[in-house]
Every structure is written in C-alpha cells, then in structure tokens.
C-alpha cells in the first residue's frame, strides 16, 4: 500500500532527517553559547545560529507534518478505492458468501487504521536515526555518561520488544469483532420487521452489543499495553536523567567534566524522549496498521469476474436460431458442492414467453445465474446468437438481457433514479411511458423508491427492466402474494414483451404459467419435460402436481 508513495515517503524522510539534524545540533550550539558566555567571547554569532536552527527545524517539521498527514489520507483513500472497485468487479456469488455488514466495515473501519500506520515507516527511520545520532553526540560529549544512558535504553527496548506484538494481536481481534458487529447489525436492520414481530429486539441488540463489547475489550487490552509501553519508556528516560545528573554532578565535582558539557548532555537526554516516544508510537501504529492491512489483503481471496475476452474477429452471429441456448450445461456452486444443474439442454427462442417451473431447489435460479454469468458452467456451453458466451464480454451479454430480481427489486434513491438505473440517459418521456406500462402512471417519480408498497416496488423493478425494450427479459417472479392490479400489470407487460422479444420467467403464479408459450419443467437440476401447458398437464406427473399446488386443482376450464 505504501509502495506507490515511495517518493513522498522519501521526501518525508529527508525532511524528517533535516529536522532531526537541526534538533541534534541545538544542544551543541547551546554548549557553544555557554562556553562563549563564560569565556567572554562575542555571543552574537552562537545565539544567531541557535535561533536559525530553531526556526529552520520548526519550518521543516511543519512541512513534514503536513506532507505525512496528506500521505496518510491518500493511503486511506487508495485502500478504500481499491476495495470498493474490487467489490464491484467480484464474482457475484463469491461476494454474496460474505456478510454484507462485514464487507462494509472493511471499507469504513479497517482502512481508518491505515491512517496512523502510513507515516510509521518514515517515523521509525526518523526516530531510529534520531536515537543513534543523539547517542553518538552523547558519546562525543562524555563516554561514561553515555554508558549510563545506554543501559537505560537497552532495558526499555527489551521490555518494549516483548510488549509491542500484543498490541497488533489485540487490534486484529478488535477489528474482527467490529466486522461481526457490522454484519449482525446490517442483517438485523434489514430484517427489522421480522425482528420486531418476533419480539427479538432485546436478543438481537444483545448479540450486537456483545460484539461491540468484545471489540471494546480487545481495544482496551491494546490501550493498556500501549499505556504500559509509554509509561516504561517515559520512566526509563526520567530515571536515566536522574542517574546522569547524579553521575554527571559527581564527575563535574571531580573536575572530569565541564558544567557546559553536562548541560548539553542533559539536553540530549531530554531529546532522547522524542525519538523514544516516536519509536513507541510508530511501532504501535505499525502493529495496528499491519493488522488492518492483513484483513484488507484477505479480500484478495474474493474471485474477480474474468476480464473481457480479447478482441477477436467476431464470427457472424446468427439471428436465425434461438437467442439463448444452453448445451449440456453442468454447474456447481463450489468444488465440493454437488452440481446444482446437470446436463441442461435448453433453447430460448427470440419470440415468446418461456416459463421455468420446478420444485424448490430444482435449479431454476441457477439457470438465471448462468444466463447472467454470475456462475460459469463446469461442462457444456451457453450460446448467445449462436456464439459461445466465452466469445462475448460479460458486459455484452448483460447488455442484451434485462433482469428482474425476486427479492430486492429496488435500489436506494428515487423512483426515477431506479428507472434510469440501467440507462441513465433515459428521457422523462421514456420514464413516463414505462411507468404507465406497469400501471403506475399516477406515481411521483421523485418519491423514494422504498416509500411505496411491496406490489408497487415490484412494478418499479419491472419498469426498470422494460425501459428501452430489452431483447430478453429475465423475470424471477416474486413468491410473495401481490395485489390483483400488480399481477395483472406484470401479466400485461410479459405478454407485451413476448410479442416482440423473448421473455423467460421463473414462474410462481398460475396466471404466468398459463400465459407461457412453452414451459420447462426442472427437477433435481435436470430438464424433466418441456412443452405447452396442455401437453405437460396431460403427460407429466410432476407438472400436474406443481400446477395443482398453484391451486388450479382439477378445474378443467384451464386445461
Ligand atoms: N449460492 C449458493 N451456494 C451454494 N449452493 C447453492 C446456492 N444457490 C443454490 N444452491 C444450491 O443449488 C441447488 C439449486 O438451487 P436453485 O436456487 O437454483 O433452486 P431453485 O429451483 O431456484 O429453488 P427455489 O424455487 O427454492 O428458489 C440447490 O440444491 C441449492 O441448495
């Protein structure tokens, strides 16, 4: 994540080192001021140098601070951009396997931790150089005092190296709990009606609060370790100041050390606090940042949809045969899973309404997922205009199909936004035309799409699919009961579309089945029978039972 920002980091490092150098020189110049003062030499020059050092050091420090702050925001933005892009390029089924709320927290919360970590590498090098530089200059001033300082630094370093990794571990655990919190919260809010109707508010909120408490507990553990690390480093510095003061005063008393050297040395000891706290801070930030980066990198496991096929001379596509065809298609949802469909042969003619029926789990939705390329066949092939899917890009295929989902038919936004979702350039007239096609002419397109009834929502989803008359309409009919008006509107639209294009429905309603030009009966992942209602009703046992379950019973007027 840092790699693309190498140049900014290098500049940050150089600025940091320059600020460090100014800081390192200050005690020596102070000693020069003191020596000049006691030696009666002209004070103007050393004081001027000291003032310049302070101003230059401050200016460089300010520049570096702003630079690194901007870098941090850029890294968070880069991470968010790449995750969001990844989500939208991911294979649908891979993405749907993960809880939505958790996917959201990776973008919102995990990336936030990268903020502090982004400057930590530069900070670490800076602090390391500052620490070594300070120690060297201390050695130049007085070796025995340096030995006392080193002893303190080594003790502090040993304790820190044992404690710091625990911060990263606690942070990872905290972020995992935040992910669980996001997933549970999102799921519960989405099903808030069921939660309330089941009087499960307390239970659900309890679960979510438990995840929040877990996150807090882990973060508190991280905070405690950080506090201990800080306290140890500060106390270490303070103890060494006392030790150095004592040893220094004794050596000055013996005449082995000038007072100005002791003052300069003590200034260095105080300056040690800078690099030591910087080291501590940056190591802590690095630990949490690495934990977050690890969780973000896990997202690489989400498979991406293959990029578009290389441009090759397109064989003339045939407009004579069926628009879509499945030839011996077998597909499964995972390497371990049993095939969801096996050896499916199916043709969708250019005109007319094809209804797919079958018991639950027969593979109806899987056929739609294959047609929309959410799932790729393991064996067999799918053809569009007589050309295999592999020769078309995903976008080409989807551009020819319009799809109405069964469950979540509207997107956030107004009704007009929803209608223009596939074709953002649709005119107001086109929007009005599709609204009247689904018998929603009276509705205000500026209304929120979620502020309408369930039946109206289904009609909005259908209207979106009908805008710009798609060649093939794939309609997964809602299983929920809808009002007569909605049912009639859907029926009319299907009939209308079937007169000039192809309509494929996963039919859950008797009226839809009866309306179809041909019906495909799926059972256990295979095509069991195909034909018209009358043929199938007479010849196929399963079809008869399915239709009877749709409450046609033995009413022969339908047969
Ligand atoms: N996302 C998925 N991951 C794993 N297995 C799945 C997934 N979706 C469906 N299956 C399995 O594939 C088989 C066919 O499912 P499919 O959803 O196509 O049936 P369906 O006929 O549409 O059923 P329903 O009418 O209940 O929606 C079932 O055995 C099901 O368990």
UniProtKB/TrEMBL annotation:
Superkingdom assignment: Bacteria
Pfam family, one: ABC_tran
Cell location: Cell membrane
Alphabetical list of InterPro entries matching this protein: AAA+_ATPase, ABC1_TM_dom, ABC1_TM_sf, ABC_transporter-like_ATP-bd, ABC_transporter-like_CS, P-loop_NTPase, Type_1_exporter
TM region positions: 47-67, 113-137, 143-164, 227-246
Gene3D superfamilies: ABC transporter type 1, transmembrane domain (1.20.1560.10), P-loop containing nucleotide triphosphate hydrolases (3.40.50.300)
Key words of the record: ATP-binding, Membrane, Nucleotide-binding, Transmembrane, Transmembrane helix
GO MF annotation: an example: ATP binding
Topological category with respect to the lipid bilayer: Multi-pass membrane protein
Record-annotated ABC transporter domain positions: 324-549
SUPFAM superfamilies in the record: ABC transporter transmembrane region, P-loop containing nucleoside triphosphate hydrolases
Domain ABC transmembrane type-1 per the UniProt entry, residue ranges: 10-288
Protein name as catalogued: ABC transporter ATP-binding protein
């Amino acid at each position: 994540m840092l790699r693309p920002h190498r140049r900014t980091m290098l500049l940050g490092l150089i600025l940091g080192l320059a600020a460090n150098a100014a800081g390192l020189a200050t005690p020596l110049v102070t000693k020069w001021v003191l020596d000049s003062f006691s030696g009666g030499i002209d004070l103007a020059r050393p004081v001027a140098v000291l003032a310049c050092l302070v101003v230059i050091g401050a200016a460089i420090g300010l520049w570096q601070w702003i630079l690194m702050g901007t870098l941090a925001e850029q890294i968070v933005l880069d991470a968010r951009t790449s995750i969001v892009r990844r989500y939208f390029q991911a294979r649908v089924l891979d993405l749907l396997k993960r809880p939505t709320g958790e996917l959201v927290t990776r973008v919102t919360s995990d990336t936030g931790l990268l903020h502090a970590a982004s400057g930590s590498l530069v900070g670490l090098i800076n602090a390391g150089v500052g620490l070594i530089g300070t120690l060297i200059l201390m050695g130049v001033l007085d070796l025995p005092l340096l030995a006392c300082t080193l002893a303190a630094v080594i003790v502090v370093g040993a304790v820190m190296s044992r404690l710091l990794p625990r911060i990263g571990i606690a942070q990872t655990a905290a972020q995992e709990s935040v992910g669980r919190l996001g997933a549970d919260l999102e799921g519960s809010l989405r099903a808030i009606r069921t939660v309330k109707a089941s009087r499960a508010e307390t239970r659900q909120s309890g679960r979510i609060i438990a995840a929040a408490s877990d996150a807090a507990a882990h973060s508190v553990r991280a905070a405690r370790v950080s506090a201990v690390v800080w306290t140890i480093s500060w106390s270490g510095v303070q103890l060494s100041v006392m030790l150095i003061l004592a040893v220094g005063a004794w050596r000055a008393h013996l005449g082995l050390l000038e007072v100005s050297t002791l003052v300069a040395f003590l200034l260095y000891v105080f300056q040690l606090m800078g690099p030591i706290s910087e080291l501590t801070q940056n190591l802590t930030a690095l630990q949490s940042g690495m934990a977050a980066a690890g969780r973000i990198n896990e997202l690489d496991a989400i498979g991406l949809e293959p990029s578009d096929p290389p441009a090759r001379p397109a064989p003339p596509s045939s407009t004579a045969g069926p628009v879509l065809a499945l030839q011996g298609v077998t597909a499964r949802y995972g390497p371990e899973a049993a095939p969801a469909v096996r050896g499916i042969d199916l043709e969708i003619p250019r005109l007319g309404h094809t209804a797919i029926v079958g018991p639950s789990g027969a593979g109806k939705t899987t056929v739609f997922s294959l047609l929309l390329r959410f799932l790729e066949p393991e064996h067999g092939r799918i053809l569009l205009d007589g050309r295999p899917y592999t020769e078309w890009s995903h976008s080409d295929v989807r551009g020819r199909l319009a799809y109405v989902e069964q469950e979540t038919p509207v997107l956030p936004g107004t009704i007009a936004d929803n209608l223009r979702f596939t074709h953002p350039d649709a005119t107001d007239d086109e929007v009005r035309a599709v609204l009247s096609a689904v018998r929603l002419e009276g509705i205000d397109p500026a209304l929120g799409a979620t502020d309408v009834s369930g039946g109206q929502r289904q009609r909005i989803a259908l209207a979106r699919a009908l805008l710009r008359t798609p060649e093939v309409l794939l309609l997964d009919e809602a299983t929920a009961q809808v009002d007569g008006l909605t049912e009639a509107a859907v029926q009319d639209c299907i009939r209308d579309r079937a007169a000039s294009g192809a309509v494929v429905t996963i039919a859950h309603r008797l009226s839809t089945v009866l309306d179809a030009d041909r019906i495909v009966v799926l059972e256990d992942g295979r095509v069991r029978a195909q034909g018209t209602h009358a043929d199938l009703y007479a010849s196929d046992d399963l079809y008869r039972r399915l239709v009877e379950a749709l409450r046609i019973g033995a009413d022969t007027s339908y047969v």
